[in-house]
Each structure stands twice: as structure tokens, then as C-alpha cells.
Amino acid sequence: MEDFDYLHEGEVYLDAACQSLRPRSVIDAVDRYYTKHNSCGERVKYKWGVITDEKVEETREKVLKFVKLPSRKYTVSFTLNTTYGINLILSQLDPRHFSKIMTSEIEHNSPFLASIAFSKRTDLPREVMRRNPDGSINLDDYDFQKAVVVVNCAANFDGRKLLNIKDLVKKVHKDGGVIIIDAAQAMAHSADIVRGVEADAICFSAHKMYAPSLGVIVWRDELDSKMQPLFLGGGMVDDVDKSSYVLSAENKEHRYTRFESGLQAWGEIIGLGTALDWLNARSKKDWQNLAENYTTVFEFLSSSDKVHLVNEKPNPTMSFYVDGLDSHLLGNALSRENIMARTGYFCAHYYLDHVLHLPPLIRFSLGLHNSPEDITKIQKVMEKIIH
To answer: What CATH number was assigned to the domain covering residues 2-20+284-386?
Structure first.
């Protein structure tokens, strides 16, 4: 695609689950910030700052529109990444409102480790839920009474989705709990799974959805009453006395400052706005091409007795190992052919290593940048390796 014209011929990028490539329009948007109106948002009155403020506010509105959640109930705050966002929320939740914390077995280390730390810090029990092969949770198997639930809606090693996410959210709320959704792996290619889902917070990384490196929290305003503000600093207060302060977040218009201490990544936020425009502009054909590409790769890998896929069905993200081959060495061999793929356990150590007892894997994660020529090259190179 011309949007990725910086890719050299023969380069095949298969690590979109880590971070997607950025379309030229997104790169240009960030460049314009630094060269046309490089300024501090929310702090200045001169022209450059006004432009920055307008574009940042536009991005907040675009995020809410993208996930189809109302501004009367939800706020958008920007952070470093999904990991930071999840930890930021958990570190400020008041444990007096809750009885336990729950996560699931197929989580990225971000929520998995953060839930362990929360349990240790608060002395609240922690529960790890089973996930079905299709990604759903058997809700009748668990008690969500006053629970903090932190789960993904799409796994980062095989893309399986939390198919009953809406039912889970309803049950958690009915039982007086709160639910935080790790949507990092969904926003680029499976955003429908979280659209209109009224979770207490949805955390994701812009850099996995064709945008610059950035974290996003879409959070329910009611969550504010269950938090103790602990992470404080510049850009978060309306007034400060010798031993007291007035938080800007007490004003609905500036509630996003609850999670935005200090100077923000204004250029990257603006770049996210452009990335959302780019994603919204993708045609039906673009999505069909992506589906055809990852389905072809999945079927090719499935056709070999030597290849063992974690996936049960096609997905842009697929993980596997090959009989008799060390996955790290395989990754090096692919790299020599200009095919870039991730190896290891992809920050999902507990499930892949200790539950499934799999060896280190190799992950192919495709994106909208991949061409039919990429797929042909993958098949040719892998054919030489596994046959």
C-alpha cells in the first residue's frame, strides 16, 4: 500500500501485535505538530497552543466515537501504554469498595502481574478464571460480588475473543463490582468486540492500531467515586495552597486529568486522531484483503504435520512451533530472509508455558500493510524450512 511506501521491497513485517506500522498520513500528522505548532497543550494562550488544544480535543471525541460510548458517561485520558493504564487505575482503586480481584488465565503480563500486585498491596484475594477455547468465560462458574475484574477482550497470541463480554460486564455490575478491559489486541482489527460495551474502563495502546506510541483509557465517570487520587502533579490542579489542592478532575470538563499528570505527548495524541481517521476510511476490500491474507497463512501452516498452531481458527495473530526447530533460531532464519516475526511467550508466560506447557513459540501477526506478495514470500520461505 502507498500508505506504507517506506517499506523496502522484500521486507515482510509480521509483528503488528507488538506495534503496527504507521501510515504515511499519521507520520505526517506528528511531523506537522513538531514543525508547525509545537506547544504545550492546556497551558498556553498563544496561537500554537490553541491549535494543539483543538486537535487534542478532537482526538478525545474521535476515540469515544470509535468505541461508540457517550461523552455524558465516559472520559478519555491518555497515558504511556496499556500496561501503564491498567496499573494506574488499579493503584488508585480504594480497596474498601471491593472483596477481591479477578483476572483470567490467557492474559498478557500487563493485567496478570498488575492483579498480583493489587492483591498483595490490598490483602484482597485473587482469582484466575478459566477461558474457553473460543475465549469466552463460563459466568456461572464464578462469583463477581464486589470484584475488580481485569480481563482482555482479545488474546495477544491467537486473537481469541471474549465473546460474552457484554454478559460479563452486566453480571459484574449487577454484583457490585467493576471491570477493566484490556483491549490492546482488539482495537486495530476487532474493535467491534468493545464498541458500546459499558465497562468501567477500556485500556488500549495506540501503537497497536496504526498510531504513535501512546496509551488510552476510556473510563466510566462513575469509577471516580471508587478511587483515591495518588498519582498527582502538574496539569491536574485548579489551585494549590500550602497543604491542600483542588483537582481539575472535579470538573467534568477536565475529568480526563485524573490520569494525565504532567506534560502529555501532544504530537502522539494528534497522530492517534489521524490514525482513527485512517482506520475509519478503510474500505471493505481492505478488510477482505487482510482476512484473505491471514486465512491463507493459517491454512498453509495447518497443512503441515510439523507445525503446531495454538490457534483453532484463522486470525491476524497466530502462534505456533515447528517440530524439531527452536523457535528463536527459526525467527533468526526468517529475519535473514527479511521476514520479521516475534518469538518466545509474548508476555503470556503463565498460560503458554505453565498451563499449556508449550515450548517457545513464533508469532505471525499481520496487518493492513501486508500484501499478497508478502504472503507468497512467507509460504516460500517456510516451505523450505518445514518440508
So the answer is: 3.90.1150.10
